[in-house]
Amino acid sequence: MNRILTTLILIIASLHAMAARHSYSINESWKFYQGEHSGAQQSEFDDSTWEFISIPHTWNDQDALDDTPGFYRGDGWYRRNIYIGPEAGEKQVYIYFEGSNQLTELWVNGNYVGEHIGGYTRFSFDITEFVNPDSFNQFAIRVNNSHNVDIPPLSADFTFFGGIYRDVLLTFTEKVHISVTDYASSGVYITTPAASPEKADIQIRTILENKTDGARHVKLQQTIISPTGEEVARKITSMNLRTGRHEHTEKKLTINNPVLWDTENPALYSVYTRVYDHSSNQLLDEIFNPLGIRWFEFHPDKGFFLNGKHTKLIGTNRHQCYLDQGNALNDQMHVRDIRLLKEMGGNFLRVSHYPQDPVIMEMCDRLGIITSVEIPVVNAITQSETFTQNSIEMAREMIRQDFNRPSVMIWAYMNEVMLRLPMERDTEEYYTYAESVAEFGRQLEKTIRQEDPSRYTMLAFHGNLDVYEDARLVELPMLVGWNLYQGWYGGQFSGFNDFIDNFHQKYPNIPMLISEYGADADPRLHSFESERFDFTGEYATLYHEHYLRAIMDRTFVAGANIWNLNDFHSEYRGDSMPHINNKGITTLDRKPKNSYLLYRAALRKDPVLMIGSKDWQVRGGIADENGRTFQPLKIYTNLDSVEVKVNSTSIGKKAVESHIAQFDIPFVDGMNTVEASAEHDGRIIRDIYHVDFRQVPANLRSTNHPFTELNVMLGSKRYYEDKLSASIWLPEQPYSEGSWGYTGGKPYQPRTRFGVLPASDVNIHGSSHDPLFQTQRIGLESFRADVPNGRYAIYMYWAELDSGFEHQTLAYNLGQDKMATEAAKRSFDVLINNKVVLGNFDIAGQIGAERAMIKKFEVNVQNHQGITISFNAHEGQPVLNAVRIYRMY
Question: 824 φ, ψ to 5°?
C-alpha cells in the first residue's frame, strides 16, 4: 500500500511539474519567402504562394556552393499560424530561439514584439500580451543576414548562412517562475567555490519573476541528485516576492565525498530548482541544471591540470555545417559530431568561432569534453560604440546561457583580430586602430571576468606576434591561443617548433594553447611526392604527424585544437574544392580522413588498428614486368607491430613507429584485398581494405595485359579519384617508347608572394572536378600513347588559368593566393596523328577564362601508329590540362 501511495505521489508531482512549466518545438510547416516583402508582418497578409519549409532552415544551403560569386545576404520572412490552447490563459508565454542569423524581428498577431542582434546566441521574447489562448495566432519573423558593420562577425573564413537554423520553441510558465528572459539562460547559476575529493561547496543564484499584480509568498527549493540517483543535498528558503524580478543566492550547499567530473568519468549531478506556493505547496516552476564538480588550472610551464591531475588537452575546432544542408542541422547531427570527437580519443573542443547548438554543449558535458566557447569577433573590429556594446551583449549571452556547463573552462572573445587590418601597419591610423582594439579587448575582458570569475579567458592570435604586442593584447587574457600553420601557408614544419619555443621563452608566465593548426586535404587527391599546398591527404598526414609530436613533447603547451573536426563551407575560397575549407580531419559529410585515424591511434587507450586511405576505393598505376604496382600504405595503430597480407599472401611484419607502420603494397589489376592484423592480449585485431586497382601496362601493346583506358592530369604529381564515375586519374610522366607521356613543356606553377603553388587555386566554372583543370603543361610539344590498333575515344581537358581577373584575396591564406596575372593570349592547332582536329584554338576566346572545356574525338589507330596529340603554336604557348584515352573497340 505504501508503495502504491508513493507511486501516486510521484505521478501527481510529475503532473504538477508539467502543469508548472512546459515547452515544445514549433519547427514544422512554416511559410517562407526570400527577399524583402512589404506588409508581411500583418496578420491578414496573403502568404499562399510562399513555399513550405521546416526549421532548422537556411536559405544559403545551395547558393553558397554554386559558381556564382557570393551568396544571398538579405531578408528572409517566416510566417505560421500556430494554435495555442486554453491552458495558456493563466500562463506566461515565451518564444525561444536557439539560433537565427543574424538580425531577427518578431511580430505576433500583427504586433511588433522585438528584435535580437547576433546570429549565434540564443534569445527569447515574452509574448504573453500578444497571444490569444485557445485560438490560432499569427507569427511573422523577419531574419536578415546582411553585412552590418556594427554586428560581429564582420568577415571570416566561413559562410554566414542566413535563416532560422536552430530549433524554435514555445514555453509556458506560471505567473511566478524562474526567469526565462535573463539572456535566454536557465535563470539559475551554479558555482562550486570550493571543491576537493572530500567536500564540495555549492552556491546557487536564482533569478525569479513575479508577473502577478501583488506580492507572493513562495518557497524556493534547491535539490541536488547524485550521478547514481540519490538525493545528496536540499535547501528550502521562504521568501516574499514583490511584483517584478528578484535575485536570490543560496550561498552554500555541501556535498561530502563528491564524485568528480573529469574527461574519463564525466560524472554529472542534477540540480533541481523548484518554486512552490508557500500556503498551498503548489509547484509553480521547476528547472533542471547539470552540475559537474571539478577544479582546474592552466600552468604556464606544466600545462593543464584537472582535479589536480595533469591532462594533455587534444581535440579539434568545430563548424556547424554539413554537406547539402548548410548550418541547418537537427539535434542528432550535432550529437554525432561530438561522438566522432570522443571516438577519436579527443578530450577538448574549441567551439569556434561562435556559440553553438545547446546539444553540442550537453554532449560535451556528458562525454567529458573540455570546451572553450567564444563570441564571433573575427579578423577585425569596427571602431564604434555600437559594435562594442553588441559584442559585450553577445559575451553576456554566451556566458549566462552556458554558465552551468561543467565542460566549459574557457571563455574567448577575439580570434585573429589583427589579421585583416583596415589600413597599412606603421601608420598613424594603424596605431589609433591598435589602441581601439586594446580598449575593446579591455572592456570585454572586464565584462567576462565580472560575469564569471571562475573560468579562464582566452584570445586566439594568428602567427604574427608583433601586431598583438602593438595592440597590447598578449598579456590581457588569462590564456593565449595560437593559430599556427607553418609548413602549410608558408615555411617548414620546424617553424612551428621554433615559434612556440620562442614565445614561451619571451612570455614564460603566460599559459598557452595551440588553438588552431591544420592542412587542407581533398579526399579525392593523393600523391606519393606530396608537397605543400597540393591538397593531398598524404601531405596533410605528414603535417599532422609533425605537429602532434611537437605538441606532445612540450609540457608548456597545455593543449591543442586541430583545425578542424570537419570540412566546412567558406564561400570565397577556390582551391581544389571551391567554397569549402578542406582542413577537416573528416569530410563535409563526416567521413574520417587519415589524419583522424592518426589521432585515434595516438589518443585512445583501447587497442586500435586501422588501414589508412580506405576511402580511396579506385586506385591506379603502372604495372611492372611482374604485373604488380607497388604503392605505400600506412597502418595506424597503438599496438607494437603489424602484419599485412595482400590477396591472402603475407608481405611481412613491421614494428610500429609513432603509431604508424608503412608497407609497400604490391597491387595487381582488379580487386585487391589488404588485411592488417596485430596481436593484443591473446587476440587478433584486424582491419580489411578492398580496393579496385586499375593498372596501365608499362608496355601499352602488351598482350598479357590488354590496354583499356588511360586518364592523365598534365603538370601534376597527383592522383585524382573521380568518386562519381569510379575512375582514377594518374600524374603525368615523360614519354618513353612503348608507353605514354608528354614531350616538352613545363608544369603550370602560379606564383604567390612566397613562391609557387603546385596547382591553381581558382574556382573552375562549369565543373565539379576542379583538380582536373587546375594543372596543365605549358608549351608541350605532344602527348603520346603507344596504344595497340583499335577504335579510341580521346577526351582533351582545358581551362585557361591566366585570366587577368581580380580575385578576392583571402587574408587567411597569409599571402599564398595566386598573384594576379595578365590574361593569356594563345592560339594553337591541335593535331591527332598529324591531322588537324582544332585549328587556331583559343580557349579563352571560345568560352572565357577559368571555365572547363572538354573536347571529345574518335580515332582509328592502324599500322601500330599509336596516338600522338601534337600542337602548332600561332600565338603564345599551347597548353593541355588533362587527357583521357579510352579504347572503344
Answer: -70, 140
Burial of 226 (0-12, 13-18, 19+ CB in 10 A): middle
> What is residue 143's DSSP assignment?
E
State the virtual CA torsion across 176, 182, 186, 190 in degrees, nearest 10.
Answer: -110
CA distance 780 to 527: 23
Residue at 728: amino acid letter: I
Q: Are strands 777-778 and 879-880 parallel, antiparallel or unpaired?
A: antiparallel
CA–CA dist 615, 710 (Å, integer): 22
Would you mind telling me the total number of residues written for the chain in this entry? 889
- How far is residue 127's CA from residue 92's CA, in Å, rounded to a whole number? 8
Report CA torsion sign: 664, 776, 616, 581.
positive
Residue 510 cell numbers, joined? 603566460
Using CA atoms in the order 234, 239, 242, 246, what is the torsion angle rounded to 10 degrees?
-40
Cβ 789 vs Cβ 861: under 8 Å: yes
Beta-carbon contacts of 736 under 8 Å, excluding residues fewer than 6 positions away, are none
Task: Give CA–CA dist 188/205, Å, rounded.
Answer: 6
CA distances from 624 to 500, 608, 668 (A): 46, 34, 10
860 Cβ neighbours under 8 A, 6+ residues apart: 790, 791, 792
Exposed e or buried b per residue across 274-302, where buried means at least 16 C-beta atoms within 10 angstroms of its C-beta: bbbeeeeeebbbbbebbbbbbbbbbebee
User: What three-state secondary structure class fits 594?
Assistant: helix
Residue 522 CB-density burial (10 A; 0-12 exposed, 13-18 middle, 19+ buried): buried
* Average pLDDT for 831-843: 96
Beta carbons of 661 and 641 less than 8 angstroms apart: yes
Task: Please check whether residue 165 is in contact with residue 321, taking contact to mean a CB–CB distance below 8 angstroms.
Answer: no
At 2, the pLDDT band (50, 70, 90 cuts) reads very low
Beta strands (DSSP E) in 594-648 are 609-611, 618-622, 629-637, 641-646
Q: What pLDDT digit, counting tens, does each position of 415-453 carry? A: 999 999 989 998 999 999 999 999 999 999 999 999 999
- The answer, yes or no, to whether the previous bond of 102 is cis (omega within 30 of 0) is yes
Three-state DSSP class for 787?
coil
782: amino acid identity, one letter: S
Task: Give the DSSP per-residue string, 459-528.
Answer: EEEES-HHHHHHTT-TTSSSEEEEE--BTTTBS-THHHHHHHHHHHHH-TTS-EEEEE------TTEE-S
Which of 633, 705, 649, 645 has the alpha carbon at shortest distance from 678? 645
Radius of gyration of the chain from its Cα atoms, rounded to whole angstroms:
31
- Collect all residues with Cβ–Cβ distance below 8 Å to 75 and sequence separation of at least 6: 34, 35, 36, 37, 142, 143, 144
- The model's pLDDT over 213-248, given as tens digits with 9 standing for 90+, comes to 999 999 999 999 999 999 999 999 999 999 999 989
Name the E strands within 647-743: 649-655, 660-667, 670-680, 683-696, 709-713, 719-722, 727-731, 740-743
Cβ neighbours of 312 (radius 10 Å): 17
Task: Using DSSP bridges, classify how beta strands 296-299 and 269-277 pair: parallel, antiparallel or unpaired.
Answer: unpaired
Backbone φ and ψ of 872, nearest 5°: -120, 120
Sign of CA dihedral 517, 121, 249, 369: negative
Handedness of CA 114, 172, 278, 203 (dihedral sign): negative
- CA 874/CA 358 separation, integer angstroms: 63
pTM above 0.85, yes or no: yes
